[in-house]
């Protein structure tokens, strides 16, 4: 059975939720506000999203797809792993520079949904695992023997930049982050063994 395009009401609900969850936090935004701002009925809301948690999971899936698309495009535009890693950093820097930036949607959600068994928390972990796997694959082409540690280091730099980017001058945060990633890629590249294993 072929699925049709998402309904206009569902898209409105998701767009509204994406904006208000990111701007104001998930727990502080009630279903009534989303229904009012999306201009749909309560019945329409529950027809598309049986619970608020279902909407939150879908919101994070939507953010994941947007970030994945941007990072995949950045990687595809470069021919070397080192350049791709720098391009991923540039993409993240672009997110931090955007007006209305309020940190990482996934880290923000993690603070509100700490239970590892909760579907929202599981969505957060899935996104972070995808990001770490993507970086590890690229880092393995730069320095196979240290790719796991280097990828984890990149993730920590990214997390710090995302947290600091909404607290301090984004330009300074971005500059520090990009220098950090550039140094990370260079150092691990210089450690590459002379002969491939």
TrEMBL record:
Keywords: DNA-binding, Transcription, Transcription regulation
Protein name according to UniProt: TetR/AcrR family transcriptional regulator
Keyword Transcription regulation (UniProt): yes
Residue spans binding DNA: 30-49
Pfam families: TetR_N
Domain HTH tetR-type: 7-67
Superkingdom of origin: Bacteria
Keyword Transcription regulation in annotation: yes
